Amino acid sequence: MVTQRKIIDQVSGWLTVYDDGFVDRTWTGPPQFKFMSDPVPPHHHFIDGVATHDVLVDAESDLRVRVYLPEVPETEKLPVLLHFHGGGFCISQTDWFMYYNTYTRISRESGAIVVGTYLPLAPEHRLPGAIEYGYSTLLWLRDLANDKAYAPGLSSKGDFTRVFLIGDSSGGNIVHQVAKRAVGENLFPLRLAGAIPIHPGFIRTVRSKSELEKPQSPMLTLDMLDKFLNMGLPEGSTKDHPITCPMGEPLSGLDLPPYLLCVAEDDLVFDTEMEFYEGMKKDGKKIELLMSHGVGHSFYLNKIAIDVDPNTSEQTRKMIQAIAHFVVNH
Questions:
Q1: Structural domain contains residue 27
Q2: Which CATH number belongs to the domain containing residue 145 in this structure?
Q3: Mind listing the pLDDT tens digit for each residue in 253-282?
Q4: Which domain of life is it from (predicted)?
Q5: Measured by CB atoms within 10 angstroms of the end CB, which terminus of the chain is less buried, N or C?
Q6: Residue 291 zone, left/alpha/beta (φ > 0; ψ -120 to 50; rest)
Q7: Tens digits of per-residue pLDDT, 121-137?
């Protein structure tokens, strides 16, 4: 007799978890949005000024990265943006179209090499697994800087004295965790020049005013917020875990790099992001704020909205311009 497996949890459109542990991440939402979650194959030739390739960093752990290399003069050394993708720690990958579309543009407009880590996903791999992979990638960049490892294009073109952490949504949480951990590490000759959390998933167990009042969007609903974090955080943890609730955490003794915190006016987690910003300022940390008006969580990843809505397009342009300016000036 064949026993049918049963659904034990579901995040509409994105993810289904079965009682035998199988996780199905096949997109089941509106078909017109499916292309944004399709993987984009690497291309070694330049398309719109950017070439991409994948690198296996460590075979034992299957740590891999996607490299975005902009087309610039051969003699020029380029800053490196180490990217951690979002998805509530449970979905998406760095080669998805939504990230390809955004980070080829960031690479081109900031004149930087983007290195995106393929992160392990929950619930199969709960936190801190994704943070460990992110931090291991940073240490690999240090090995490249020390000539202890080699990666095509990256080794010859990367300026490892100007390495930035960048991540969106849950990837923004990873940015902060990796930046904190790097404080106690000898990264020489690599220098961590800055950190750019974009719409980080900073949140408390108790709903904030913005969670209760801001509009939900295809990129973030309260159901997604609750279920993804329940699957992603360490067993037995609540949203008050330091990974998701760093607000008020004492940082005065940590020599953190300069931050550019990107927030969206209509983001569900706007209030807690702003609480983090104020806490960083109170602790004397270097932090700049970029506010995107009239848009919600991860708006810049939604190619359809960028194409049809003038404000989404304009706010995306301004955000990428601000990131490029931050990189140039650090």
A1: no
A2: 3.40.50.1820
A3: 899 999 999 999 999 999 999 999 999 999
A4: Eukaryota
A5: N
A6: beta
A7: 999 999 999 999 999 99
